[in-house]
Amino acid sequence: MSRSEQELFSTAAITSFKLNGQFLAIAEELARPAGITAAWWQVLGAVLHEPLPVAGIARAMGITRQSVQRIADLLVEKGLAEYRPNPAHRRAKLVAITEAGHDAVRRIDPQHTKMAARLTAELGRERMAEIADALTTLSAALDAIE
């Protein structure tokens, strides 16, 4: 029995909603021992390699600019991030991770590594790579049609 385009779309969406909840629950569990939340980890992760403006973080993470601004302000207040001047835009400061922020993310790494290994063991490395590629392709396709 062939499923309609609408059924396929609905299945993908509902499964993505469930996955989002599952990943957020895992992220909260992983982040808690480091003294941060999943949302804080998400924003720190976005600026791990380079400072970005709040709007850039929001685009990369698929969340609202206002949510990122609130979290960035908290991270700065806690000393896990800092605001820096943005040479490309006078008013939109860059969010940069501090050494304390790097330390928090590093504290997550051992459990993050274990969870990744458990999931990869469950699915197999090749299947895990296929799934990651398919999710990336799905996200890009949604970006393309928006």
Automatic annotation (TrEMBL):
GO terms under biological process? response to stress
Tell me which Pfam families the record gives.
MarR_2
The chain positions of domain HTH marR-type read 5-140
GO molecular function list: DNA-binding transcription factor activity
SMART domains associated with the record:
HTH_MARR
- Reading the lineage from the top rank, the first entry is Bacteria
Please identify the protein, giving its name as recorded.
MarR family transcriptional regulator
Where does this protein come from, organism-wise? Nocardia uniformis
